[in-house]
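Box 3.1 A note on notation
Throughout this textbook, protein chains are presented in two layers. The first layer is the amino acid sequence; the second is a token string describing backbone geometry. Keep the layers aligned when reading.
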Amino acid sequence: MPDQTEPSAPRFRSQPNLSRYPVGDNAQLVYCPVTNDTQLVSNLHMQLVERCQAFATLDQHAVRLCNELGFGPLHVAATKAILNQLGETGLLLSDQEMRRRLAHASVSNDDSEPAPVPLISSVGIPTRDRPNELERCIRSYAQCCKSFDRKMKFVVADQSTEEKMRQTNLAILRRLKAEFNLDIEYAGVKEKRRFADILSKHCDIEPTAVSFALLNIDNCVVDTGINRNALLWSTQGQLTVQVDDDSICRLMTAPLSQAGLNLDSRFNVYENWFPPVPEILNLTEQCTTDADFFAIHEQLLGQRLHSCIEQFGGGELNFDHASARLLRGGTSRTVLATSIGVTGDSGIGSSHYYLSLDGEERRRLIETEANYRYYMFNHKLIRSVKRATVSDAAFCSGFNLGLDNRKMLPPFLPVQRGQDCVFSNLLHVCLHELTGFLPWALRHNQSNPEKFLQADLQKRILYRNSGEIIERLVNGLAPEPDLSNATKNTVALGRALKEWGTAPFADFEDLLRSIMWEEMSRNLSTLHYSLNKHKGEPTYWANDIASAISWLSKGLTDDNISVAADLCLAFGIEEARTIMQRLVRRFGELLMSWPALIQGVSELNAREVYLPTTVEIH
């Protein structure tokens, strides 16, 4: 049946996050969190509601539902009448109604006029043992500042293992300072140790909490989060951006970029593109220097949601993946972290999650077997959002991370990978603020990129690294939030983590096993669903899905399923168990101390006591 919809007809979707309770007699009690009301609804009507997850007009929904349910074209009018009734009761919400509720929540929550948002004034670069990449990185961002007449402070946090390497880095910084007339500050191991001692005494806090944040006291293999915490404390009160030392300030617009704004509550809002191999290699070389990297971040960073809507809402304002919490929270919340995409090295630890891609992403991945094999075992891709996006749940990649450091931000997990995921989750569950994403991609060029191996793929499907485990614990242990008290939320979560970090070891392992079993069960269901949905085609993809299902099924009974893979590799299986619980305890203690430490840093800065030192030209 042809669609008779007028172009201006309102679009509807089901209310997000409906709570449903069967009550017998083919009915359900349904709580609607956006409209804050409760209804008794027939099972048949709820079946229609749950099939309307994306926005469409009532005519479009009616035609699609009749096709899906086998009702035939004669039932379209009756189906539309039911949908119209569901719209009147609020079980289906229009995009116009969602806009109205956002505006109303904003007025209800905050009538004040926000202060003007300052410009980004500093760029922080975490580095360790990579002097060539560090010089290339700073040179590229310094050139951007020169091209767009921007005054920027550069702060380098250095965890290089040898003093000789740290001196090499300092020599590079002096040379670049002279060449570009830069304001450069440096926080090496010595500077961090000095400041940790001063801060712990000033705050009268157990030195271990500060040392965990700034010093690698457990001798972990990866300690990037230490540098990130040092950069947080070095740029307090500013809008700042942190960039990896192997990034290059060359940009491209996202493929298929669109005007407008997405409000999105998914954990991952990025899309992946897998161009033919010669094309991806050329694209990374063709990125431009004609775009102001910092101005791109400033479009969302530090802005309240209503400002983002005003700026980008002239195009489509898309609510398809917005949660009830995002819609009810009002538009006075602030975007505290921003990110743009990546072109070149993906920065991900494994390609196993590509197996469950769907829609256009999956089509791009499996277009040819050669393309599929290349991307499953190489790091290169393009990853970005297609439209400016604001989220109350998504993670921001640390590869390039804009930060509104004028208010308390959470700490980074000091050691091991995944600090950006943990940080993003803390920002959402403790501060209840927003993250923002722009439809651009920044060049990432690792000097010696590794390839994914089949054995690595199997391990990453089965096991989780310590950062991923802590991320799951943060989500699972976060107490009922006080939406107006970030300090209370942060301390409460820290206390919960510390309790598990000091619990009997058998209980702690049981907790980790339950987390892993739940995740493996969910992954198995997703893989089976995807395999059935696509009828086992193409075979080269289906064979990998079948292998993943086999690995996961066997892994369910693995006695070591709760052991962090990265710690096991570095320390051996038994020590890894002990270190994992210790990391949870230490991170809990850090969260409990964090508000006091932030206040202490502010007080020391007011006395002109700073973590980094100014780089001087000899």
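The chain has three domains: 12-109, 122-225, 226-606. The first strand starts at residue 12 and ends at 14.
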